[in-house]
Amino acid sequence: MADRRFFRRLGPHALAKLAAIGEAELQNPDQAGVMIEDISALETAGTGQLSFLDNKAYLEAFAVSGAVAAIVEPRHAARAPDGMALVLSQQPYRSFALIAQAFYPRPVPATGISAAAVVDEAAAVGPGCQVDAGAVIAADAELGARCAIAANATIGAGVILGEDCIIGANVSLSHCVVGDRVTVHPGARIGQDGFGFAIDPGGHIKVPQVGRVLIGDDCDIGANTTIDRGSMRDTVIGPGCWIDNLVQIGHNVELGRGCVIAAMAGISGSTKVGNFVAIGGQVGMA
Q: Of 67, 94, 177, 275, which one is least surrounded by beta carbons within 10 A?
């Protein structure tokens, strides 16, 4: 069970409602009114809790789980313990993700600008935004409605954020345009100089990096990840990309839609990646 000090839980919810949210169906319609108070792992679930089976490696745990209900593929339904209510889905983990959001929705920021924040008079802060202590919003920056800017984050001059963005503590954003519903986790650096220079025996010569970073809607960017701005053209992160912690993305990189990049991967400048590409941890691409 999630610690209520950190996570606000909604509910309980009727099982029929949750099945509809998860785009699944009940095995037994007579169990539509079973009330679910929370979600949990198979091994720890108990009274009032719903779990899921998405990997046959957990069949034994499923067979003895104390969950009152579980999301499962129809082919595994016979392995359920007696009395467990079943929600049938061809994609149990997807259904679980949708249902979990009913219990733990995306946090709604408290509105208001801290007296300890620094907001330039030329910045535009949309309605319903939260700006925490120590955050800096520079001149000509634009924040869409309902954005949350955590402590000590820096939104650089001219940066544009869409609506419903969450910017974590100590993030720095510069030279970038960010879409709607983007989350940037603590410590990420976006829009700094790319690694561009001309080699010269007398000392390397800096090439001005005059591109931007463009981040599409619904992206999630992990803690301490770095994304360099373009040199002559833009660095592009397509909509729906999920980037883990400690990832480096060089200048002029173009990621297509829905890419997933695991921790400590590095993508060299000007690399182009298509749609829905999965890149594993510590992978290097050039």
A: 275
